[in-house]
Structure formats: structure tokens, C-alpha cells
Write a structure and sequence with these properties.
With about 475 residues, the protein is of the alpha+beta class. The protein is built from 14 helices and 23 strands. A hairpin with a 2-residue loop joins strand 12 and strand 13. The radius of gyration is 26 Å and the shape is globular. The chain binds zinc ion. Zinc ion binds next to loops.
Length: about 475
């Protein structure tokens, strides 16, 4: 028992420091910076730096190519972030997209109530909370107010509304009230609201999917866990429209395809992915089946994505609130029905942290600790780094520039490095995940071969320039 405790303690410390190492690497090498860093930051926001935006774009392109471009049954859309507020009335977000907020009566700090006590969900009541009565994380006292529901949508005014309108005459107040709009808390509603436009313009056959990638916003009470729980994030969402009788097999197909995508395209190991069949009492009332796909992050298991069967709940809500018919008419049988949907939804930041956690390794090389990001080639920011063995030999530099220009024209994502010595350049490229380093030396001038060094094995081979 004692041994097990020690083992888990050591593991905990090891993993905590692995997350710290990833955070530090991301800042040091220009992957991820804290948002508004220069002004002391902005809680719950993160910025992608030059390397991070390349990784992000590669992930987006990998996803889009796999789920949209390479398929005949999936189509893309890109809806506006600010939507008609009726959207959020109809979807239920205005009424229920809320977290339980509790305030300390002593220091007036505010927290998400369910996060201060173990084993409770968002539905925790004031009585349940006070029965446990945890200490305030800020001041240590136990004098709490009552739980209030805090809606997590960011609101703004659309149009010419002045701050004083909100406390002005009745007509000014009405103007201010009617101008309230929200930054979308999920991208999915942009798909449902465009369903009819798509069906009426490109006439897809059910089953078909609409895919969207884009920003969404949640005013989290306490953003935390690095980029896992932030206030501004990006989502990959698919709504796959099916005949009601075929939802179960379509669910299974999409589920299996997504697991293949995570392992084959994003490089996540199957042993780090766990599935949680969400029990009925925890599912949204309209969902007949939901699977949470969890990933073993360095700081513990967390949700990476979810796949939910949402019946015709969303389209029926749109039909009700808009008065428009959302029925689909089968081209062969003539049968009309409101399609049901299977919704796989993945967060970009969650995927990026999973990819980085999977890729991050430390090993020993030449008696030193080496940090390496073993990113899959399709995700690595740069595919090649080209450098002359010596910076002060013009004949080597000229030849290296020639090779660099040739590769850049062919592969685009090629970087040049002539700083420090060759060992330092390898370490830097290992840290940013560049799969191959190409070095031009004096032999190159004789026989047109270069050294190609592999990131993962550090093995070097001579290759003819025209075979690169
Ligand atoms: Zn307090």
C-alpha cells in the first residue's frame, strides 16, 4: 500500500513536471504565448506564435482534407460568429448554458461551485455545497453565499447603442435590450441554421455531413489547465444527417473512423485514448447515446472530444423557432422526415495539447539530455531544415542556399539555419519537431551529396541532392 502511494506520488510529480516542460517549450520556441502577455496577460486566452500557428494550420488542413475534401458525403461551411439571438433561445443556451457560481462572503472571490467539491456536477445545490463547506481557495474561510446560475455566453451590443441607453428612457432601454447579441458558445448552431440553405442549393443525399471549423467563446468562471479550459477556443464540428432508422450504424461508423483519424493522422497512441460511454442520467435529455473520448494528458485524463447522437432535437428546434420546414424528402422513395444527427465535436486546443504531449520526449544524446518533439510529418511546422556546415565559407553557403531554394519551391515548409554550431542547430530543430536536417559540407561540392539527419533516431545518411 505504501509503495503504491509512493509510486502514484512520484508519477504525479513526473507528469506535472512534464506539463510544465511542454508549457516552457511552447513559450521558448514560439508555439504558444499567454494572451496579451505584454500587458500582464488576459485570463483564459492564449496566442499561437509563429511555430504554433504552423502546427495549428497543419492540424486544420489535416482535419479538413480527411473529413471534407477526401469524401463525397461531407461538405464545409463557415458561419458568422455573431448570430441572430433567436439561435440561442431556440437551442436552449440562453436558459441553460450556465455554470453554478458561488461567492465567498469574506473576500468576495467567485468560483465554480462544483469544482470546489469532489464528485459533484454542474447541478450541485447550495444545500449540497454547504453540507461539505469547503474552505475558500483564496482566504481559507468557509462563509459562502448561495449558488447562482451564471450564463457563460459573452454578450455584446450590435448596432449604435450608447452605454447610457441601458439606464435611459424606456425606449432607450428597449433599444439596448433588443441589440444584445452573443459570441457563439459553439459552432454547431451555425450548421443547423444553414441546413436548409445547403439542402436547397446543393441537394445532398442523406446521409451527409456538414463540417465547420471555427472559434467559439465561453466565459469560464475559472479558466485553468493551460489551454484545456480557455475562454476563447476553436472547434472542429461535424453534423452528420441520417435517416432516423439508421442512426445506430452511422454512429458506429463515424466513431470508428474518428478513432482511426486520431491514431493515424494525429499520431495519438491508442493506449492513451479511453472511451467513456456516458450513462443515461448524465446525457443531455435528447441524446440516446454519447461517447466521451478521453486522452491521457500529462496532468491526468481529460476529455479530448465527444460523439453524440442528438436525434432531431436541433433541427426541430430550428423549425419551431423559425417556422420553416426542416423536412428532407428522399430522392428515391419520396419519404419525408426530419433527419437525425450524429455529432462528433473536438476542440482544437485540446487536440494540440494531446499532440504535443504525445510528441514530447526527453532522451540522452552525446551525454546530454535532448528534448525532441516527435510530431507526425503532416503536423510538423517544418519538414526540412537546410544549413551549411560552416557559416563563414561562401562556397558552402552558396551551395546550401541553392539546395534550400530548390526544396522550398517543392515543399514550402523548409527552414534555414546557420546559427551556432551544427550540434546546436540539431537540438533546436529536434525541439520544434523538424523531421529532417540537411547539411551541406565540403563533400557536397565534390559529389553533390548532402547529409540527411533523422530527428527521431539521429541517424545520418548521404543522399544525392537530386534524390531529396
Ligand atoms: Zn474567500
Amino acid at each position: 500500500m505504501k509503495l503504491a502511494l509512493w509510486a502514484s506520488f512520484l508519477c504525479y510529480n513526473f507528469y506535472m513536471s512534464k506539463l510544465d516542460d511542454i508549457v516552457s517549450l511552447c513559450k521558448r520556441r514560439g508555439f504558444i504565448f499567454p494572451g496579451s502577455d505584454v500587458y500582464g496577460g488576459m485570463a483564459g486566452t492564449w496566442d499561437f506564435g509563429p511555430l504554433g500557428v504552423m502546427l495549428k494550420n497543419n492540424l486544420v488542413n489535416t482535419w479538413w482534407s480527411h473529413w471534407v475534401d477526401q469524401r463525397d458525403d461531407m461538405f464545409g461551411i463557415d458561419a458568422a460568429i455573431i448570430m441572430n439571438p433567436t439561435t440561442w433561445e431556440a437551442s436552449g443556451h440562453t436558459a441553460t448554458f450556465a455554470d453554478p457560481l458561488i461567492e465567498c462572503n469574506e473576500c468576495h472571490s467567485r468560483f465554480r461551485a462544483d469544482k470546489l467539491v469532489d464528485g459533484y456536477s454542474e447541478s450541485i445545490t447550495t444545500e449540497e455545497f454547504k453540507a461539505i463547506n469547503p474552505a475558500c481557495p483564496n482566504c481559507g474561510k468557509t462563509n459562502w453565499g448561495s449558488i447562482r446560475k451564471f450564463n457563460m455566453m459573452f454578450s455584446t451590443h450590435v448596432g449604435a447603442v450608447l452605454p447610457e441607453d441601458e439606464s435611459g428612457s424606456e425606449s432607450d432601454k428597449e433599444l439596448a435590450r433588443r441589440s444584445i447579441a452573443y459570441l457563439r458558445p459553439e459552432t454547431a448552431q451555425g450548421i443547423f441554421t444553414n441546413y436548409k440553405n445547403v439542402v436547397d442549393t446543393i441537394y445532398p443525399s442523406v446521409p451527409f455531413g456538414l463540417c465547420q471549423f471555427g472559434k467559439s467563446f465561453r466565459n469560464e468562471i475559472s479558466p485553468r489547465d493551460y489551454i484545456l479550459r480557455d475562454r476563447e477556443c476553436s472547434q472542429f464540428e461535424i453534423e452528420y444527417f441520417v435517416h432516423p432508422n439508421t442512426w445506430a450504424e452511422n454512429f458506429e461508423t463515424i466513431h470508428k473512423e474518428y478513432l482511426d483519424f486520431l491514431t493515424n493522422k494525429l499520431g495519438l497512441k491508442a493506449e492513451n485514448i479511453h472511451e467513456l460511454e456516458v450513462p443515461e442520467e448524465d446525457r443531455a435529455f435528447y441524446s440516446k447515446r454519447t461517447i466521451d473520448i478521453m486522452y491521457n494528458y500529462p496532468n491526468g485524463e481529460e476529455e479530448l472530444m465527444g460523439i453524440a447522437y442528438r436525434t432531431d432535437y436541433d433541427l426541430s428546434n430550428v423549425a419551431k423557432a423559425s417556422g420553416k420546414n426542416m423536412e428532407y424528402r428522399d430522392k428515391i422513395t419520396g419519404e419525408t422526415f426530419v433527419p437525425h444527427v450524429i455529432e462528433p465535436s473536438m476542440g482544437l486546443e485540446r487536440a494540440i495539447l494531446a499532440i504535443l504531449s504525445e510528441a514530447y520526449y526527453e532522451d540522452e544524446m552525446d551525454g546530454e539530455t535532448r528534448v525532441v518533439l516527435k510530431l507526425p510529418e503532416n503536423l510538423a511546422p517544418y519538414k526540412f531544415c537546410v544549413s551549411p556546415l560552416l557559416k563563414n565559407k561562401p562556397e558552402l553557403v552558396d551551395k546550401a542556399r541553392e539546395v534550400y531554394n530548390q526544396l522550398k519551391a517543392k515543399y514550402t515548409f523548409v527552414t534555414w539555419d546557420d546559427s551556432g554550431n551544427i550540434g546546436k542547430r540539431y537540438r533546436k530543430q529536434d525541439e520544434i519537431g523538424t523531421p529532417k536536417c540537411i547539411v551541406i559540407d565540403f563533400d557536397t561540392l565534390e559529389d553533390d551529396t548532402v547529409t540527411v539527419r533523422d530527428r527521431d533516431t539521429a541517424e545520418q545518411v548521404r543522399v544525392k541532392i537530386n534524390e531529396l
